[in-house]
Structures are given as structure tokens and as C-alpha cells.
Amino acid sequence: MQLSTKPNTMTYKREDKRAKAKRALRSLAIAVAVPFSLTMVTVILFGSGHNYRAVHKPFWFPPLWFIHLASLGSSFLMGFSAWLFWADGGFHTQSNALLFYIAQTFLSIIWDPLVLVVGAVWLGWFFSVVHFGSLFACYRSFRRVNPFAKDLTKPCLAWVAYFTVVNYKLTSLLF
Q: What is the pLDDT of residues 107-150, one digit of tens each?
């Protein structure tokens, strides 16, 4: 009796699952790390906020460290929700969602240098409003494909809505 030299199909399936899991983890790490890292670099380079600290603010204005922490948390959540959306084929079926995601990522990163360094508070408020709109568009796109990805965008929407109000009130304090 001769033993078969053919590899077992179960072995192939197991190896295939491992390879897919490694690719999924690698893509998840990239999807979360890129926006998080860009936000972290922006906070480190432009997050001093001398103008923001110098203004006498109402009690409900967040401290600068909380602004940075919430921005980092929001970029993490949006990276994770975008990955969930992508993993379910969402960017292939709804190509506009990718544009909205890129727009919201860019707008969340640009706010710190725009307002805290340059002092363009009115332009920062406009960017906050557009940021909320792009986040809401992501929310609507994500809900059609992955309900959990949709739910991850809700805290980001709440943060940007609150921060848009803070930014608007900041314009009246500075001018």
C-alpha cells in the first residue's frame, strides 16, 4: 500500500485562513495607524495653542489636552469604522464614501494648525461645519453596509458637532 503524497485539502484551507487573517490584521493596522499617526504628528507640531490658552473661555470650553485627545480618539474610531466598511466591500459599491472619508480625515487634521497656529478662527469654523457634513456623509454611507461601522461614527459626529459650536463661540471671543 502506497501513501498518497498529495497534501491534505484541510491543510490548505487552514493555511489559507491564516494567510487571510494576517492580511486582515495588517490592513486593519494600516487603516487605523495612518489617520492616527497623521493626527498625532499634527498635534505634536501645531498643538501648542497659545492663542486658545490666552482667551478667557466659558466653563464649557474643553481644555486643549482634551481637544487633542478627542481628535486622536476620533481618528482612531474613523479609521476602524472605515476599515470595517472596506472589509465588507463598501468602498467598491459606494465610491463616494471614500471621498467623504478622505475629506473628513483631511479636515480633522487641518484644524489644529489653521486655528491654533495661524489664528484663522472663522475659516476654522467653516472647516468644522464642512467636517461635520463629511462625517455625516460617511455615517450615511457606512450604515448601508456595516451597522457597527455606522455606530462607531456616532461619537465622532457628537464630538465634531460640539466642537463646531465651541469654534463658533471662539470666533465671538476673539473678534
A: 999 988 888 888 888 999 999 999 999 999 999 999 999 999 99
Axis crossing angle, helix 64-87 with helix 95-111, rounded to the nearest 10: 170
> What are the pLDDT digits (tens) for 77-106?
999 999 999 999 888 888 899 999 999 999
Q: Which of 49, 43, 106 is nearest to 69 (CA)?
A: 43
Full-model pTM:
0.85
- Measured between alpha carbons, how far is residue 100 from residues 7, 77, 138, 142 in Å? 47, 15, 6, 11
Q: Which grid coordinates are listed for 11?
A: 491543510
CB-hemisphere CA count at 13 Å for 139? 15
Give just the sign of the alpha carbon dihedral 166, 168, 170, 173: negative
Instruction: Write the DSSP assignment of 27-65 as a string of letters.
Output: HHHHHHHHHHHHHHHHHHHH---HHHHHS---TTSPPHH
Q: In whole angstroms, how far apart are CA 125 and each of 39, 129, 138?
A: 19, 6, 20
